[in-house]
């Protein structure tokens, strides 16, 4: 810390209790000055030789026959006045970053100018400020902090503005030119680590990160911090990443972690002002800089402290652009009354919808301006799809979550953002576990969100054994898994159907699927033997098909058995052949051309 010593005489000021200060001297004191609650017993001559205002006050007191001079509104209080008084006596005074502002304002109040005496206190302080304080990084911050106690004097004397300009100018310097000490307790950013890679050990120690200045200015009050950050941004040399890192560090420093503390009446006004200030200081370039995690945390605090709608809208738009970076934990925004759910589902739904709308607008901007930084590409959409599925799984544990809210949020993500439905299946299964009172219709509606064709092998195996799923969904899972298995031997015709079919079409769909599967199995099993041998082999093939799923639980086996039976019944009703031709799956092979002789024998047997 820089300092300046003034005067050479020993300090002769003495105290008598807390409210009396006097100078030990052979000469009796001849003037009493009240500064606040403290009385100073002093001598007129040294004071009047330096202060124009004291000359006026002493003259006025003599005319009024008053023994004391009162200074109620003295800037800096008794301590600042004592510094000025000691300077008048020529006693040793030490100026430093903590007292120089108060001394400057006191000297201005007392009019200790060059017109009164050459080399007066105002001149000395000005030299100290310009030569030492404003050249020092930490001293400039300390001085700026002390200006608040002597407002509006420090503002009118432009000390505040000069401190802010000094700080902002230093933050804009090339980090390689930083030679002073600074506080840095955070982890280095990725870019700084990369820049330091390959340096020698000694070079790494002295390398300065780009955001070296962030922590030191966190000690400022919010109003001064806002002015400093505005000045830093106005210089135009600081990128959005560093600005956001500064705002994040300040938020961590001053925003409480406890929700109860945020809601308390004591700090609510301060917290609200703090959040609104940070939001207005965010970089104008919304697509870069601040992480989505930080913005979402800021949004949660903004909701809790009740900031105005404009600040929340700004945050929502910024979050929408960076949604692909978020985690499930970031999206767990606590719900506020009158909401009954644990988390604010409507807020997340609003963010997702904004993301989808903005992604199109930004793609258009890319084509027009050639900018790639703000584009939400296909990879980002896939990340959002996965994120929402994981979020659905988390909120599905809430017993108060309505089916409509679950479905709305699920459908907010486009189909191409979900190439795999494993995450959605896990969310649906979790919802079914918690909400046991769902009706059959509601369970069907919930499961219609999922496409079993997009389940991986592991998810299909789990779904085939899941007794919470509707029968039709399990049947489809079994069918498509069997199709995959058969496809390894011979390519299959696409017989898949969407799980969104109506209830009236479901039986027809299942029957058609069974027909297709039986045809494929019969093609593999039929031999060109006699009719009796062919029938026996066909029956054996049917048994083998059933034995292939013996590892499944009893419920799944029963469903697969029903699938076979249902398919044969459907073939019975829809076929023009006699009952003898529909006794086994092998008879349901119209158009099989593996052997024309076996086909003709089959027809002849039917006629007989």
From TrEMBL:
Ranges of residues in domain BTB: 29-97
Residue ranges, annotated region (Disordered): 491-515, 564-608
The UniProt record lists the keyword Transport: no
Domain NPH3: 211-484
Pathway assigned in UniProt: Protein modification; protein ubiquitination
Pfam family, one: BTB
Record-given protein name: NPH3 domain-containing protein
Taxonomic source organism: Gossypium schwendimanii
């Amino acid at each position: 810390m820089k300092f300046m010593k003034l005067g050479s005489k020993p300090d002769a000021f003495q105290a008598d209790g807390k409210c009396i200060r006097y100078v030990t001297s052979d000469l009796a004191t001849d003037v009493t000055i009240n500064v606040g609650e403290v009385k100073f017993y002093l001598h007129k001559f040294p004071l009047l030789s330096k202060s124009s205002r004291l000359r006026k006050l002493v003259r006025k007191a003599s005319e009024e026959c008053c023994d004391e001079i009162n200074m109620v509104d003295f800037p800096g209080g008794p301590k600042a006045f004592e510094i000025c008084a000691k300077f008048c006596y020529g006693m040793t005074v030490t100026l430093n970053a903590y007292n120089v502002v108060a001394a400057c304002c006191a000297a201005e109040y007392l009019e200790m100018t060059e017109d009164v005496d050459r080399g007066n206190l105002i001149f000395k302080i000005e030299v100290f400020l310009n030569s030492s304080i404003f050249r020092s990084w930490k001293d400039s911050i300390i001085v700026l902090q002390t200006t608040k106690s002597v407002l509006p004097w420090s503002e009118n004397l432009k000390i505040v503005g000069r401190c802010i300009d000094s700080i902002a100018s230093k933050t804009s310097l090339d980090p390689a030119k930083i030679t002073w000490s600074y506080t840095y307790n955070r982890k280095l950013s990725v870019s700084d680590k990369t820049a330091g890679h390959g340096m020698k050990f000694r070079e790494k120690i002295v390398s300065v990160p780009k955001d070296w200045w962030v922590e030191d200015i966190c000690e400022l009050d919010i109003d001064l911090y806002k002015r400093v950050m505005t000045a830093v941004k106005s210089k135009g040399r600081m990128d959005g990443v560093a600005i956001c890192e500064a705002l994040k560090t300040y938020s961590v420093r001053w925003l409480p972690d406890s929700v109860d503390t945020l809601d308390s009446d004591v700090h609510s006004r301060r917290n609200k002002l703090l959040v609104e200030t940070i939001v207005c200081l965010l970089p104008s370039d919304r697509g870069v800089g601040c992480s989505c995690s930080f913005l979402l945390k800021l949004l949660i605090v903004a909701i809790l402290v009740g900031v105005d709608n404009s600040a929340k809208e700004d945050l929502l738009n910024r979050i929408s652009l960076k949604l692909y970076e978020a985690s499930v934990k970031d999206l767990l925004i606590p719900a506020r009354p009158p909401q009954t759910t644990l988390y604010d589902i409507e807020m997340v739904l609003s963010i997702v919808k904004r993301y989808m709308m903005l992604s199109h607008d930004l793609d258009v901007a890319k084509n027009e301006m050639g900018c790639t930084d703000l584009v939400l590409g296909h990879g980002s959409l896939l990340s959002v799809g996965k994120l929402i599925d994981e979020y659905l799984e988390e909120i599905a544990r809430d017993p108060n979550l309505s089916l409509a809210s679950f479905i709305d949020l699920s459908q907010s993500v486009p189909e191409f953002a979900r190439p795999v439905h494993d995450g959605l299946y896990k969310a649906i299964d979790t919802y079914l576990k918690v909400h046991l009172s769902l009706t059959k219709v509601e369970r069907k509606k919930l499961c219609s969100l999922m496409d079993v064709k997009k389940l991986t092998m592991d998810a299909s195996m789990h779904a085939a054994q899941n007794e919470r799923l509707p029968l039709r969904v399990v049947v489809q899972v079994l069918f498509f898994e069997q199709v995959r298995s058969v496809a390894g031997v011979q390519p299959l015709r696409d017989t898949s159907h969407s799980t969104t079919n109506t209830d009236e079409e479901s039986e027809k769909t299942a029957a058609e699927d069974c027909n297709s599967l039986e045809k494929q199995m019969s093609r593999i099993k039929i031999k060109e033997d006699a009719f009796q041998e062919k029938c026996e082999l066909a029956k054996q093939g049917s048994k083998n098909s059933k034995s292939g799923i013996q590892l499944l639980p009893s419920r799944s086996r029963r469903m697969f058995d029903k699938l076979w039976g249902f398919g044969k019944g459907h073939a019975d009703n829809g076929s023009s052949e006699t009952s003898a031709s529909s006794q086994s799956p092998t008879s349901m092979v119209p158009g099989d051309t593996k052997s024309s002789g076996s086909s003709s024998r089959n027809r002849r047997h039917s006629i007989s």
